[in-house]
Specification:
Structural class: mainly beta
Largest sheet: 9 strands, antiparallel
Number of strands: 20
Number of helices: 3
Radius of gyration: 23 Å
Distance between the termini: 36 Å
Number of domains: 2
Order of helices and strands: EEEEEEEEEHHEHEEEEEEEEEE
Length: 307
């Protein structure tokens, strides 16, 4: 996220401040791959020339110290650099400019009203896109017996699929989504593998429309299948499974230049607490997480005939 006190303009240099989610990864020999998220502070300058942006960015990490196990019993503090900078080039790709003319001359509004009266803006939605997760809770199973394994922090990138129905007048969406999430911790011949399969019913209302940036939020309920297993070499030391219903929330935003598009772009974020797997020793592995869907393509097949 970058905030510009003065808007970017052609042939002008503009300052900015901001922050970001940065992943920090560290691994020593056969130890665990330590993963952490930091929120550095950014500041710098952007120069704009046509569709070209050149940026000079300075970053400061106020939290730069972490505990790391160099053996199953010995840990030490490690540090990352507090300060760094980068020079970057960006090319702007405009995908919504074609909608500008219709919005200005009123033709988009007339078409929208006509299609709405005919009931052609309600309908089926099909969605797919890449996602990842940030795990939010610690596991008593790990902390008490295997602290050198660290805790689950991130999952690998996985596909997300959705099938739903949209009501235009209410600006409301109901959806069924499917995700299969897997993560693994390995250190000193120990392997803790965990997985989550989720089939989620979610419903959300669009709250605003700020120049085509549309925020939404709503409840979700999910049928969950959670698995965790700890191996030492080929020997299974402990395992657990959970199946059942869990509540959560969904929020995010659509990028829609108008409300008659056949395709739009969506970003989903979901939060599910209390995703615990009880292991053989009665301690739990927590799979609580914040899902982050980077970008999802949403297709309205019923609108093809409107073109």
């Amino acid at each position: 996220m970058k905030i510009y006190p003065w808007r970017i303009e052609n042939n002008k240099i503009r300052p900015f401040v901001g922050t970001s989610f940065n992943a920090v990864n560290f691994q020593y020999e056969k130890g665990v791959l330590l993963s952490r998220t930091i929120l550095p502070i950014h500041g710098g300058f952007t120069f704009n020339k046509g569709l070209n942006l050149i940026e000079l960015n300075f970053s400061y990490a106020h939290k730069n110290e972490f505990e790391y196990y160099f053996s199953t019993t010995t840990s030490k503090k490690i540090n990352i650099h507090k300060l760094w900078f980068n020079l970057s080039y960006k090319y702007m790709i405009e995908t919504t400019l074609g909608a500008e003319k219709g919005l200005k001359n009123g033709s988009t509004k007339r078409i929208t009203e006509s299609l709405f009266e005919k009931g052609k803006l309600n309908g089926l939605t099909i969605a797919a896109g890449p996602s990842s997760t940030n795990f939010t809770s610690r596991s008593s199973f790990i902390d008490e017996a295997y602290p050198f394994l660290d805790n689950h922090k991130f999952a690998n990138i996985f596909p997300e699929f959705g099938l739903g129905y949209y009501w235009h007048n209410l600006d409301f969406q109901a959806n069924i989504s499917y995700r299969n999430i897997k993560t693994e911790l390995t250190a000193f011949n120990y392997v803790l593998s965990s997985s989550r399969r989720a089939i989620t019913l979610e419903a959300f209302k669009f709250i605003n429309d700020y120049h085509g940036f549309c925020f939404f939020a709503g409840p979700a309920i999910s049928y969950e299948t959670l698995n965790s297993k700890l191996n030492f070499g080929n020997t299974t030391l402990s395992k657990g499974i959970y199946t059942g219903i869990k509540p959560g929330i969904i929020f995010g935003w659509d990028i829609r230049p108008n409300r008659i598009q056949t395709f739009i772009l969506r970003t989903n974020l979901r939060y599910f607490p209390n995703l615990d797997v009880k292991m053989s020793n009665s301690k739990t592995v927590s799979l609580d997480n914040l899902e982050f869907n980077f970008i999802q393509l949403v297709f309205y097949p019923g609108r093809i005939q409107n073109k």
